[in-house]
Amino acid sequence: MQSASGTGLAFIIFTEAINQFPGAQFWSVLFFLMLFTLGIDSQFGTLEGVVTSIVDMKLFPNLRKEILTGGICLVCCSISMAFAHGAGSYVFVLFDNFSGNFPLLIIAFFECIGVAYVYGIKRFADDIELMTGTRPGLYWLICWKYLSPLAMLSILVASIVEIVVQGSGYQAWVAEKGITERLEWPTWALVLIAVLILASILWIPVVGICRMFNILIVEDNEKAWFPAADLKEFHGIVPHETTKAEQYLFCIRPDGSEGLCCPTSGPREDDEEDDTDVT
């Protein structure tokens, strides 16, 4: 039953089920057309995130967006050829297990830490209220500050312990025996796994260290403009009075800082201004 998950679920189990339908050829065409369109749709969102980030950071200011998008697609297509050779399924398993799971979990964990413990959960709630007109409830604030980081940290630690105890391997097909056997990843694969994970998460400490020493990775002299006064008037927002529950749960102080061991800074000057002009 190893095929009942991952790619085997779509290309073996579902395919076998469709073969039992009346007019199986018609349903097969629809099924694989659906898979194709789902893949294209996912690529739209993923690629747009990469292209928009590069354009906003002005890494290639003189390059047209169409050419930049085409270049990124060409690079991604070239990399994807690694999945098309005889051992492509094993490379896919390696990427599937390590390029998304661990990096996404670590990035999401530090996002919660950055928002709740560095930026400040009160300021974050104020921003949401300003943009949507509705202030998030106490349940969401507790989730963002305590429950979500704890859950992600638990999953991350459990995953690391599992790898340490059981080792990191893959199911390889042994043609002579007609079965699959668990094998350990070779050394070059372990190096690739480390590169896949570090390529995504290494920027977190790098950017943090650069900000600590006031080193600008990408220079941006333009100050963003945000219609805070218009939104406050539109939503009818009044200054939020911190409740006793919020003070006890999030250790919010009278000066606006919060936290028990590492208090965040109080409201910045930008937070006190209704509108910020572009300089």
Can you give a write-up of this model?
With 279 residues, the protein is mainly α. It is 64% helix and 4% strand. It contains eleven helices and two strands. The chain has helices at residues 7-18, 24-57, 65-80, 88-98, 101-132, 138-166, 187-201, 203-212, 228-235, 244-250, 269-272, and strands spanning 169-174, 179-184. Strands 1-2 form a two-stranded antiparallel sheet. Strand 1 (169-174) and strand 2 (179-184) form a beta hairpin. The protein is globular. Residues 274-279 have low confidence and may be disordered. Belongs to the sodium:neurotransmitter symporter (SNF) (TC 2.A.22) family. The chain crosses the membrane at residues 29-55, 67-95, 101-121, 142-165, 185-206. Pfam families: SNF. GO terms for molecular function: symporter activity. It is found in: Membrane.
Short recap of the structure:
By secondary structure, the protein is mainly alpha-helical.
Question: What's the structural blueprint in terms of helices and strands?
Answer:
Blueprint: H1 7-18, H2 24-57, H3 65-80, H4 88-98, H5 101-132, H6 138-166, E1 169-174, E2 179-184, H7 187-201, H8 203-212, H9 228-235, H10 244-250, H11 269-272
Antiparallel strand pairs: 1-2
What labels would you give this structure?
279 residues; mainly alpha; two-stranded antiparallel sheet; globular; disordered C terminus
